[in-house]
Amino acid sequence: MFWRSVVFKLWVTFLIVIFVVLAIISFFLLEFFEGYHVNQAEKELLDTANKVSTLLSEYEDQELIEKMITTIKDPASRIIIVENEEESWISESTDETLPLITKEWLFNKEDYRSVYFNNNVVKTETTLDDGTQVLLVGTRLTDQVGAVYAYQSSNVVAATTEQTTRIILLAAAIAIVLMTIFAFFLSTRITAPLIQMRKAASELTKGEFRTKVPILTHDEIGELAMAFNRMGRQLNYHIDALSQEKEQLYSILRSMADGVITLNRVGDIIVSNPPANKFLEDWRYELDMEDEETLPHEVKDLMQEVITIESESMREVFIQGRNWVMIMSPLYDQTKVRGVVAVIRDMTEERKMDKLREEFIANVSHELRTPISMLQGYSEAIVDDIAESKEEKNELAHIIRDESLRMGRLVNELLDLARIKAGQIQLNKELIEVELYLDRIIRKFKGLSNEKQITLTYSITNKELLLLFDPDRMEQVLTNLIDNAINHTQEQGEIVVGVEEQNKKVRFTIKDNGSGIPQDDLPFVFERFYKADKSRKRKAGKKGTGLGLAIAKNIVEAHRGNISVQSKQSEGTTFTFELPKSNGEE
Asked: What is the per-residue burial (b if ≥16 Cβ within 10 Å, else e) of 322-342?
């Protein structure tokens, strides 16, 4: 609204100041001119009275004197001549409202009587018996006894004063109008840059920090505009810097594998990254929490504990099948704890590795304990001559030899697996004709398959297929898979090794119709020391280490391939691995 604006307030302020100043000046001017007009009227009346006194002393012709008095006096005034106590004369006046004053009325007043008797001069404003205000002066006659009185109505002076007042008031009104226009113009000139600054400030609140205020003058307002523009540039610079730092912080938080949450003292989330959001989402889902803004009670309890003791605390939770460690630390604002920051780390793999490490040590210990016990027992039997005959000693020696070979295989396979895991295996790749290579391996198992009355065959879609791989390592894979198939296939069974050329890969399949693998054991067949359940037991003398499939998987992956298994119990098993195609140029 206009009446709330600075222009209106400045205009009203200027107007009040001008009005007060002009009112004071007008008051004093009116007082001055009123006194001035009274003094002038009294002076003129006194001059007239003196002239009449001079005429009376110079002329004796009464008629001539009356004519001359009529000529020299103001037509609206009256002249009273008192030559002695018995006689007096009063002139005519054009002012019909001006009453006649008698000699008796004059002599009843001490001031006026003193003019006649004491030769005084009097100038007064008095009120007659009928209430008329008059100006009356009196002076003594020259060279004779008597007095001359002159008087006129105060209305004459009032009319002159009123006219002067009108002139002063008109001048004051003109001055007020001019000063109002000037004040409005001046206030507009002052407030126009302020209005532009207000608009620019509104733009700043909307984020338009490049808004500039035009500099129209070089006074204080111009300097203010310059300071405003400088402030806008500084704000733009600092906001850009803060935005970059904020974006950098968010980028760092988003790229972190660990979850990060910042909470204030009341538990409101200030900053969080995607892993932390996923962690809270899973936790709320597990607790059936519908409110997405509410924190789990364990987080709130840990937060209150950290704020109370002002020290770091840690808690591990198990959510949706994963292990999470939550480390919470106090967040200080100078000397006061203003919140907490929590780092959430997925420890599932670490816990799994710890478990696998423990299982590995237990499995190695278990695998070594049996052959070591047998070596110790049979060697003691030989040393103590429990086996008396040569045949018994030879039998025990063969058992000791078999167990030592088994221990050697276990150690070698462990070393191979460790080298492959560490990436220290060296692949000697060659361009191999797949059909000839596969035929050689199949012929190696023909005797064993015929002995068990198992049909072992192979099929290949492209008999001229060439593939680049390490023949020794790949033979180790095929040997392990075919040997497993023969050992777990009953008599009259069938094993088929297939090679199929695809778009960019070559697929190898080893399929049998043997006992199959239980559903619960399928996810673990490629782990170290995996042993099949009783449905997959091997015959005596065919004990394995449980590392063959783990080694096969790592060899295939070292060739940039992948391996998988499909099985149904009592129906058979199919192992499949794929290798990337290559040509002679590679």
From this structure: ebbbbbbebbeeeeeeebbbb
Decide: helix, strand or coil at residue 133. Answer: strand
pLDDT at 370: 63
- The closest alpha carbon to 136, from 168, 112, 113, belongs to 112
Amino acid present at 338: R
How far apart CA 369 and CA 378 sit, in angstroms, is 14
What is the C-alpha to C-alpha distance for residues 122 and 566, in angstroms, rounded to an integer?
Answer: 146
Q: What is the dihedral of CA 462, 468, 470, 471, to 10 degrees?
A: 30
pLDDT at position 563 is: 93
Instruction: Identify any residues that bridge with 336 across adjacent strands, giving them in sequence order.
Output: 333
DSSP state of 537: P
Backbone φ and ψ for 506, nearest 5 degrees, come out as: -120, 125
Nearest CA among 435, 483, 423 for reference residue 459: 435
Angstrom distance (rounded) from CA 528 to CA 525: 8
Q: How many CB atoms lie within 10 A of CB 119?
A: 12
Reported pTM: 0.40
φ/ψ region of 320 (left if φ > 0, alpha if ψ in -120 to 50, else beta) reads: left
Burial class (CB in 10 A: 0-12, 13-18, 19+), 570: exposed
Q: Mean pLDDT for the chain? A: 80
Please compute, for residue 97, the number of CA atoms within 13 A of its CA located in the half-sphere on the CB side.
8
Distance of CA 541 to the CA centre of its chain: 73
DSSP string, 402-426: HHHHHHHHHHHHHHHHHHHHTT---
